[in-house]
Amino acid sequence: xxxxxxxxxxxxxxxxxxxxxxxxxxxxxxxxxxxxxxxxxxxxxxxxxxxxxxxxxxxxxxxxxxxxxxxxxxxxxxxxxxxxxxxxxxxxxxxxxxxxxxxxxxxxxxxxxxxxxxxxxxxxxxxxxx
Length: 130
Hints:
The protein is mainly beta. The protein has a single domain (7-129), classed as Lipocalin, CATH 2.40.128.20. The protein contains two helices and eleven strands.
C-alpha cells in the first residue's frame, strides 16, 4: 500500500535546477529567478485523489488530479506548454509522466523519514529537491 503524502514540506535544498530549466527552454532571466526560489510543498492526499501545491514567493502552482487517470496539464505558468499527464504509484514513489514536446519529462516524489524528495526530469537533465 502506498504511503499517504498528506503534509506541508519546507524547502531544504536543490541540485541542477538551472540545467533542468534550460532543457525546458526557459530564458536565462527567468532561470536565475527560479533558482533563487525556495519552494515549499503542500500535499492533500485522499484515496486516489491528490492536490499538490508548490508554494513560492513568486507564484503558486497547483496540481489537482486522480492517480492513474490521464489529464491535460497546463504548464503555462512553468514553460508555456500543455502536456498529457499521468500520475501513478511505483512502489512507494509517486511518479508523474508528462507527454508532450519535451522528451523524458516528469517527476517522482518519495518520503525519506519526514522529508519529501522530488526528482524532476526533462530531456537528459535531472533536478533533485528535498
